[in-house]
Amino acid sequence: MRKFILPVSVFGTVIGGAVLLKDYITGGPCPSKAKIPGKTVVITGANTGIGKETAQELAKRGGRIIMACRDMEKCEAAAREIRGSTLNPHVYARHLNLASMKSIRSFAKKINEEEKRVDVLINNAAVMRCPPGKTEDGFDMQLGVNYLGHFLLTNLLLDKLKDSSPSRVINLSSLAHIIGEIDFTDLNWDRKKFDTKKAYCQSKLAIVLFTRELARRLEGTGVTVNALHPGVVATELGRHTGIHQSQFSSSVLSPFFYLLIKSPKLGAQPSIYLAIAEELEGVTGRYFDVLTEKEPAPRALDQEVAVKLWDISASLVGLETTLSVPVSSAYVTKETHPQPVAADSTQTQTHPVETMTTA
């Protein structure tokens, strides 16, 4: 029997070391033990992956959770599961399709009318490196869902967030923002050859720029806004990347994938941390790489680009703005439905659709 003690001990040490190394490399659990009883949290894309795990943990900590999802069947099932596992009855499924401005406006209207407060908004939902496609309103799918949809949703909920202050907005970006570039001449890939990787990186850079500009506009309101990179997480988001579709990657690289790619539960820890940590009260306009605050890419620090992107985004989604838009992807707002501007036109537009709430 003794001859097995050493091999078993070595094996156990290796396994334990691998687990500790994985936690170290991937960031580990949220260090805050704070509870959030009575606080209302809206989470987009909460029926699976990081969003579901975030909803689960915040429900466990006493929050009133609104899961905003496109697939209501999956959302209802996830909400039931979370209610059962946390014994928190205040977990609700609500329909939200970020590829539709009509759906976003309908969702925001219901939240503003039915909810007394919104303490935390977590803009979690995303699509990644998907095939060419447009949203219901004609936007590139990745720009539309990842950025423009959340841009509109956040602006429509700002009054509620201000009334609930101190409150927080958390935007999930990606390390991919580092190689992103905002192409103001063709934001929606109407003219150039579509590149799904570049489209994804552009959308994630836009999120960081939006975060910093929104934080600037909300200074003094009690609403904080921060962006984060959750790490590399094993979720459905990566289904178009093909990372595990070859024999080589699924066998030879598996040990490295184990160390570098985290579970959705671990991937949710940065969102949870930014949502509840007491030490982050008042911290705004920052970018977090997992649980650590870091400076984003230089392009994400360009104030002029951030302001220009804000103005164009407001125009695209039908919020009030006045600006010159010499880009093919610009849209003239007619009521709430945008139509393309000619590729070679420069047109000054004023859109009194509704008042955009800013500080």
Helices and strands, with pairings:
Layout: H1 5-26, E1 40-44, H2 49-60, E2 64-69, H3 72-86, E3 91-95, H4 101-114, E4 120-123, H5 141-156, H6 158-163, E5 167-172, H7 196-217, E6 223-229, H8 247-251, H9 254-260, H10 264-267, H11 269-276, E7 286-289, E8 292-294, H12 303-317, E9 322-325, E10 331-334, E11 337-340, E12 347-350
What can be said about this structure in brief?
Helix content is 41%, strand content 16%. The protein is an alpha/beta fold. It has a single domain (2-320), classed as 3-Layer(aba) Sandwich (Rossmann fold).
Overview of the structural elements:
The longest helix has 22 residues, at 5-26. Helix 2 (49-60) runs parallel beside helix 3 and helix 5 (141-156) runs parallel beside helix 7. The strands form three sheets. Strands 3-2-1-4-5-6-7-8 form an eight-stranded mixed beta sheet, with helices on both faces. Strands 9-12 form a two-stranded antiparallel ribbon. Strands 10-11 form a two-stranded antiparallel sheet. With 359 residues, it is an alpha/beta fold. The chain has helices at 5-26, 49-60, 72-86, 101-114, 141-156, 158-163, 196-217, 247-251, 254-260, 264-267, 269-276, 303-317; strands at residues 40-44, 64-69, 91-95, 120-123, 167-172, 223-229, 286-289, 292-294, 322-325, 331-334, 337-340, 347-350. The chain has a single domain (2-320), classed as NAD(P)-binding Rossmann-like Domain (Rossmann fold).
